[in-house]
Amino acid sequence: MRHPIMKVKKLSVVFLLLLLCAGFFVTCSDPLTELGLTGARTLNQRSRTQLLSEMTEKECVEFIIKKGVAIPPMFANLPNLGTLAKHLVNVVEANPNYLNTHSSRIMHDFVNSIIRVVNDYYGVTRRNTSRNTDEPYVLKHNLVRNHSGQWVSSGGAWHISYDRYNCYSYAIGITNGFVEPGYHSGSENLFGFTASYLAELVEADLVSLGYSNVSITSIAPDPLTLGPDENLICVREGGFLIDDEIISTDFHFMKYNDGYWYHKPGNTAPLKYLHHPSDGKVLNNFISEYVWNVEISSFRDFYGPFGFEGVRDDGFCYFGDIYYITYSMLSWLPPVTIDVDKFYLPAPVDAFTPHTFIFTSQYTGTVTWADHNGVPLGSGAAFAAGIQYTATISLIPEPGHTLYNVSLNFFKVDGAATSNAANIGVITAVFPSAPSTIDLVIQGVPVPRVGAVPVKTINETQYTGTVGWYPKDPVFNAGVHYTASITLYPKANYTLVGIDYNSFIVQGAELTSYTITNVHSITALFPPPLLE
After folding, report:
1. Do residues 298 and 311 lie in contact, with contact meaning Cβ atoms separated by under 8 Å?
2. Are residues 415 and 443 in the same domain?
3. Which of 90, 195, 334, 417 is most deeply packed, by most CB within 10 A?
């Protein structure tokens, strides 16, 4: 859906002529009334004279530059820069929550800047909304790990470390940076994203990192012929298909291991690919049906994390030759001491089933639970309200990593008192008593009545809250739709954890939405109040 714009009310021909004769200009207000509960009446309302998508390509480039967007050097002389800029502006205009999954740091930052300026233009605050539904998307070409460590087609897990590295770092096993090919050899990517050029930058990186026997080919090697100390990765060029024209903007890497290809689209979760990279057929001489990373899972952007499985719908595709790189591992390199001190482990909540597996880029771990008396929580059993639970996490380092030199009490688990011995991967996390989830029917927000004063705060048994109203009338007036923005603060022994989006009910409201950003916000749209 496009960003909202002003809607000129329909006027009769006679009245319109009268206005023109009088020299009046027809204006209007409240440009966001088409947004509904995704932002109507709660966003910054600013009148706009035109949609950004109505601008020419040249005007789009001038607009983003004026707003402070830096044009990457490799795009500065791009003949179709205007086409690319207009396409990205249109995509963000149509979807303010556009998911930027580019693997190239250059392109990732460029797109993030365009997302920011387009949404600023419309006064839209990006919503950190879940894309999970009653019938969630099921991955068709990939699998993703869930919180139990199983490879599944839906319900992927998220870890904060995924933000820190892209597909290239994942492929070569150095997961401490969101970097371009050439980074490790001091070479700057100046000439774009053709796979053959990127493969040469990768070769320079691998040599600089101390690897040997680096080989590049566009012919897919037989993985069964790899030696025990050999690695195999591949790279392909990607870009936007716009009006039958392809614009190169990105790359993607995969790595081979244990009979499967694995990859990590941008800053999303790693995936197990269910095909060979060369599977598919070529269309239009250069655009293929290779799925590669059109599917993503457990996306997190610079506004925060939310669960998601789905496909890219922005006209992006992969094309051109695939280049394969083999190289020998260096068995003499010492393992690296683990330096990721945090991992995702949800705190106990009444009626929730505990997580029994954790993972990061540097280690995995099994989790066992016991109550305050030391009684183990049985398999499949749920937490109970008011009981204190202790998690014991046993870590297994990933290849190339070690627990040696890990310091005393190095590891941290949010919401728990955590301890571990030095050089040991057994962690004890003691959580406070499990809270109960608050009731879904919100109390303390009465239906608007003509002449009544809008309530500004609520104080119920399970929570307190603040209430903002639009319009901001001192008393409710007849014939006006009022929207309440409610922010809840759970009291002791209660929580909002685990409540799905749009689950709350506000009595008397026509529509209710529930979003999670830095706070838990409920938006309720009421019908016009009636006279008593």
Report:
1. no
2. no
3. 195
- Token pair in block for residue 110: 């460029």
Say which DSSP state 268 is in. Answer: S
Per-residue pLDDT band for 239 (boundaries 50, 70, 90) equals confident
Beta bridge partners of 248: 239
Domain final position from 66, 91, 122: 122
Which residue, 434, 454, 473, sits at the end of a domain?
Answer: 434
Rounded Cα distance between 406 and 59, Å, is 55
User: Domain total for the chain?
Assistant: 4
| CB contact set of 430 (below 8 Å; sequence gap of 6+) | 388, 390, 416, 417, 418
Peptide bond into 4 cis (omega under 30): no
**What are the b/e assignments for 521-530, b being 16+ CB within 10 Å?**
bbbbbbeebe
Same domain, 496 and 457: yes
Model-wide pTM > 0.70: no
Residue 65: pLDDT over 90: yes
Q: Which residues contact 25 (CB under 8 A, 6 or more apart)?
A: none
More confident residue, 152 or 390: 390
Residue 12: count other Cβ atoms within 10 Å of its Cβ: 8
pLDDT in tens, 310-348: 455 677 777 778 999 999 976 556 778 999 999 889 899
Give how far Cα 21 sits from Cα of 13, 24, 48, 185, 453, Å: 12, 8, 25, 71, 44
Residue with tokens 């600013």: 46
- 385-396 CB burial, b ≥16 within 10 A, e <16: bebebbbebebe
Cα angle 282, 285, 286 (rounded to 5 degrees) comes to 75
By CB atoms closer than 10 A (0-12, 13-18, 19+), residue 9 is exposed
d(CA 141, CA 422): 42
CA distances, 95 to each of 35, 47, 125, 327 (Å): 12, 19, 12, 42
Bridge partners for 436 per DSSP: 494
User: Could you tell me how far CA 225 lies from the centroid of its own chain?
Assistant: 38
